[in-house]
Design goal:
The complex is a heterodimer of chains A (89) and B (410). By secondary structure, chain A is mostly helical. Chain A has three helices and no strands. The relative contact order of chain B is 0.19. Classes of the chains: A mainly alpha (89), B alpha/beta (410). At the A-B interface, helix 2 of A face helix 9 of B.
């Protein structure tokens, strides 16, 4: 299940960054993958749309340091909280 | 620079509508007291959005005061604000537009980032959500971005160059500079200018949310724990005149609009550049004939986003060198919010009064210092100090910078 979320997130990242999904590792930072500023905002939007989730506000999020794995974790957390019936705001 | 003779431009009237109330005086009283107009969001869709706070014009604002019914139906909220602020500014200036010759030589230039968003949103809702087949017949005249400028022109019979200026969050400053240039170069003797904005609609709130630049607590410019900007609304409108025109009629001069600087970063659509901002400040100083050391106060763009405040600090250091440590710098957006296309105009009210009264309004909601914003930001409490000359910064999405240089009345 986790792997599948990871796979889906990586594919969305690959599409946004126009790169081969194979080059993405859990440790890759968004900056490593060439995703900055508005690209990152769009990426978050794409992920939210795909999973029908809402990330908590990430003002101050650091796209230089955030990794692909941290996005996967954030998706998992949001899905868990949605399943628990808290994520509908 | 071509060698052309230019005229000096002064401010003889100002009016404002803001989260701090109706009138330039209400705005100034709030600012000098360090009182924030940021409050829980009032909106029919408030429960559906994540943003919880905004700097909205109080509900006590009555658009019908002083505006006839026929005109009122033509107005979007944006134009209501602009028209009320213009009434106040024109009244203060004492200009008599019943003399048609004065109106013929008066320009109207009003900045707005978005234009008639409230109307656009209401009518779209009718069509798309309620499946109505008709929209209001005055929708177009309410929505158009030049509506505010045109309504002011019509009300007072002002027949000089009249148009809107749009540059997102720098709209007001670009408009004011444009109006001043027309006076400087003799295209008009007087001008009504400033900025207006009212775009707190469901779709716009959602749009800002998606960009993740909105604070969920309040606006804390230059604090290390700042969490973004707080959307505001309102209008600030000014009467500009050539110095000789103002003197000839014995007008009370509030301040001199000594110079303006306009540049583009030409780098990124949202990430600001210190070089572009610094170049605009240098241009404004140059046109005003001021040295960096002459400036006592800068009303910062200071949105409270991570990117702006640190970049603006670097830009001020680039422009002012060692003098940057002797300047007072404050962001009044901490109190009137980020009124986007009206921001520069609300901030000009702050600067003109800082010059007149020797009081620098503070940066409210200041919490913890940020080493990346190591300027004297006048935390939380206004400061009494003589202010002879000041800058007012506006930097917009799209990488557009517009800076005003203001001096005490001659």
């Amino acid at each position: 299940m986790n792997e599948s979320i990871q796979q889906q997130v990586f594919e969305i990242i690959a599409k946004q960054a126009k790169i081969d999904v194979a080059v993405i590792t859990p440790e890759s930072t968004l900056k490593d993958l060439g995703i900055e500023s508005l690209d990152a905002i769009e990426l978050i939007f794409d992920i939210e749309e795909h999973f029908d989730i809402t990330f908590p506000d990430q003002q101050g999020a650091n796209f230089d340091k955030d990794t692909a794995q941290s996005l996967v974790d954030a998706v998992q957390t949001a899905l868990d909280s949605k399943a628990a019936g808290e994520g509908s705001k | 620079m071509p060698n052309v003779s230019t005229r000096r431009v002064v401010i003889t009237g100002m009016g404002a509508i803001s989260a701090l109330g109706v009138g330039a005086e209400a705005l100034w009283q709030g600012l000098r007291e360090g009182r924030s107009g940021i409050a829980p969001l009032r909106h029919q869709d408030a429960a559906r959005v994540r943003v919880k706070v905004a700097a909205q014009v109080p509900e006590s604002f009555d658009p019908a005061v002083g505006i006839d019914e026929r005109t009122l139906t033509q107005l979007d909220r944006t134009s209501e604000f602009a028209l009320h602020a213009a009434d106040e500014a024109i009244q203060q200036s004492g200009l008599d537009f019943s003399n048609r010759e004065v109106g013929a030589r008066t320009a109207v230039v009003v900045g707005t980032g978005v234009g008639g968003e409230t109307t656009q949103d209401e009518q779209s809702r009718r069509l798309y959500a309620e499946n109505a087949t008709r929209v209001h017949p005055l929708s177009i005249v309410r929505v158009m971005t030049n509506a505010s400028a045109s309504q002011i022109s019509i009300k007072y019979g002002l027949r000089g160059p009249t148009f809107a200026v749009a540059s997102a969050c720098a709209s007001a400053n670009h408009a004011i500079i444009q109006a001043a240039q027309m006076i400087r170069y003799g295209m008009a003797d007087t001008a009504i200018t400033g900025g207006t904005e009212a775009c707190i609609s469901y779709v716009v709130l959602r749009g800002w949310e998606a960009m993740r630049v909105l604070a969920d607590d309040t606006c804390r410019p230059f604090s290390i724990n700042r969490r973004g900007l707080v959307i505001g609304e309102g209008a600030g409108i000014f009467v500009l005149e050539s110095l000789e025109h103002a003197q000839a009629r014995g007008a009370t001069i509030l301040a001199e609009l000594a110079g303006g600087g306009m540049t583009a970063d030409a780098t990124d659509i949202v990430m600001p550049s210190a070089d572009g901002a610094a170049a605009a400040m240098a241009q404004a100083l140059n046109e005003a004939g001021l040295a960096p050391d002459d400036i006592d106060y800068i009303n910062a763009h200071g949105t409270g986003t991570q990117a702006n405040d640190a970049t603006e600090t670097r830009a001020i250091r680039l422009t002012f060198g060692a003098h940057a440590d002797r300047l007072a710098v404050s962001s009044t957006k901490s109190m009137h919010g980020h009124a986007l296309g009206a921001s520069g105009a609300l901030e000009l009210v702050a600067v003109v009064n800082a010059l007149r009264y020797g009081i620098v309004p503070p940066t409210a909601n200041f919490d913890q210092a940020d080493p990346a914003c190591d300027l004297d930001i006048v935390p939380n409490v206004a400061r009494e100090m003589p202010v002879w000359a000041a800058l007012s910064n506006s930097f917009a999405f799209g990488g557009l910078n517009a800076v005003l240089a203001i001096k005490r009345a001659p």
